[in-house]
Write a sequence for this structure.
């Protein structure tokens, strides 16, 4: 019985975190975009506009949920729920600290990648069910984009998985810090088993993983439909893409899913490349900074901080780079990222056999 | 090799743009509200573009070309402004005085009362023609430009300082005087006819 209560508490906690993160990220996005464009951004609701997103969500909650007459009621109604639940279920396998993971499964990464692919189905349902040309075009673009970008993202992740030798995210996290007792090498020549910190992160364990990380990061932007890969929503061409017809809380769910997805892909990037919940501070001689800053609370702090930095970079990129055309998008995926990630994966295999 | 070169070039050019936005992200400077007369007016492109309007305003010249104001004591009720107004937003009702009522500040004798001097600011197009034709320069444009009202009729500015009772009294006086004049005229005519 107590077990079930714990399950529910964890599920509600993760949902609350996703919702709070979305509130914060929307505010951050507005402020960052404003500063980049030499504006001020929201500044009337609360001190420095901090309550702006809260006011927005209250407005969304009160809005009428409109069912246009021409829509396919079932597909149209279920799509936002599927989109959000697919992303939300990905949170189940994310490790937050040493020994702290909602669901410890030995195929964690595989599970996350499988479950967030379901989001594509939700987007297609939303686009098709809306019975609107803009929605269908947006959905088709989104599906084409997400499915093709899963390939370089997957191969970039596999490069890291080959080095780590496990799909269990908790195991992958453990191998990148001082808590791991086997041998770790910085760029393959310097033993950092006792030093830990920044130097034992996967991205520094093998030089080609830096390239793999950049490939994964670019592909993850495309997977979460973020600019410069936001052609499914391209405001200037498609009104709002696949969620053109949505109003009220259904639109809110699509929005929530987008921001949850941003955090989820950042977490995956952090876990596989940037040392997961391990501290960036190394042990230097007598100062055992890495040992002092390792623990459950520290772990949560580090992993959330690192993920937030990646989210900040996503926001920064969105307000800098213009949107890619459809042909440029597929060109980048199939002719640049996919071959490069293949090469990374090959180097990983060779590295695993000959260097490690 | 072409693949790797183009990938590197793409990252480099992206980085140039990202560096530019990063510079703007951290270079947030409050907009300084220098008037257009100032030498470094165009330096404002180095600060934010936003003016938080009701809280801060751009300084404007004291002699602005915004809402109209009438110094009613200087008005000789000549009606020129109402005649030239392209949108007919000035509404004047004049009552002839029985005698000269005084002088304006520039020495013109006033012979008419302004029973009504209304300017509908909702109609006004701010052309300034009325200020040009005014012989005593009593109608002027001011630096007041922002006035919000809940009822549109509040945008009709009433400049006349006469109460309706006073106006009625003056009207009665005028009628009496005109009646007397008429009577005098009739008497004179009869006298002439009798001769």
């Amino acid at each position: 019985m107590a077990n079930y209560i714990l399950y529910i508490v964890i599920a509600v906690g993760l949902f609350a975190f996703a919702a709070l993160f979305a509130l914060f990220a929307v505010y951050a996005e507005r402020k960052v975009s404003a500063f980049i464009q030499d504006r001020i951004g929201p500044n009337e609701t609360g001190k420095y506009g901090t309550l702006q997103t809260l006011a927005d969500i209250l407005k969304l909650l009160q809005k009428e949920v409109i069912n246009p007459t021409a829509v396919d009621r079932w597909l149209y109604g279920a799509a936002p729920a599927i989109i959000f639940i697919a992303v939300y279920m990905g949170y189940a396998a994310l490790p937050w600290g040493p020994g702290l993971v909602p669901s410890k499964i030995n195929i964690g990464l595989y599970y996350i990648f499988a479950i967030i692919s379901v989001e594509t189905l939700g987007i297609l349902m939303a686009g098709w069910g809306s019975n609107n040309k803009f929605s269908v075009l947006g959905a088709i673009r989104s599906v084409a984009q997400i499915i093709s970008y899963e390939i370089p993202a997957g191969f970039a992740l596999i490069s890291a998985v080959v080095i780590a030798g496990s799909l269990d995210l908790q195991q992958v996290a453990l191998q990148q810090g001082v808590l791991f007792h086997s041998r770790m090498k910085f760029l393959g020549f310097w033993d950092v088993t006792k030093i830990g910190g920044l130097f034992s992160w996967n991205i520094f364990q093998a030089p080609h993983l830096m390239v793999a990380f950049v490939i994964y990061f670019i592909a993850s932007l495309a997977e979460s439909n973020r600019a410069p890969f936001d052609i499914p929503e391209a405001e200037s061409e498609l009104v709002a893409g696949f969620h053109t017809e949505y109003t009220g809380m259904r639109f809110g769910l699509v929005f929530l899913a987008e921001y949850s997805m941003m955090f989820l892909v950042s977490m995956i990037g952090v876990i596989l490349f940037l040392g997961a919940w391990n501290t960036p501070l190394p042990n230097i001689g007598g100062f055992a900074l890495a040992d002092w800053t390792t623990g459950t609370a520290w772990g949560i702090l580090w992993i959330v901080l690192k993920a937030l930095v990646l989210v900040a970079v996503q926001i920064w990129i969105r307000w800098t780079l213009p949107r890619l055309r459809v042909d440029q998008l597929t060109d980048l995926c199939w002719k640049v990222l996919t071959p490069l990630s293949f090469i990374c994966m090959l180097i990983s295999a060779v590295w695993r056999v000959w260097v490690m | 090799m072409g693949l790797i070169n183009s990938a590197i070039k793409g990252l480099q050019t992206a980085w140039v743009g990202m560096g530019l936005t990063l510079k703007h992200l951290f270079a947030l400077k409050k907009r300084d509200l220098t008037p257009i007369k100032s030498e470094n007016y165009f330096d404002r492109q180095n600060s934010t573009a936003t003016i938080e309007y009701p809280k801060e305003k751009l300084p404007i010249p004291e002699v602005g070309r915004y809402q109209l104001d009438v110094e009613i004591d200087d008005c000789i009720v000549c009606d020129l402004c109402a005649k030239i107004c392209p949108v007919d937003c000035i509404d004047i009702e004049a009552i002839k005085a029985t005698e000269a009522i005084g002088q304006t500040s520039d020495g013109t004798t006033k012979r008419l009362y302004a029973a009504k001097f209304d300017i509908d600011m909702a109609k006004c197009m701010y052309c300034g023609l009325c200020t040009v034709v005014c012989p005593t320069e009593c109608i002027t444009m001011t630096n007041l430009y922002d006035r919000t009202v809940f009822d549109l009729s509040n945008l009709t500015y009433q400049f006349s300082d006469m109460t309706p009772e006073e106006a009625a009294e003056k009207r009665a006086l005028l009628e009496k005087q005109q009646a007397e004049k008429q009577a005098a005229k009739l008497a004179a005519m009869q006298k002439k006819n009798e001769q």
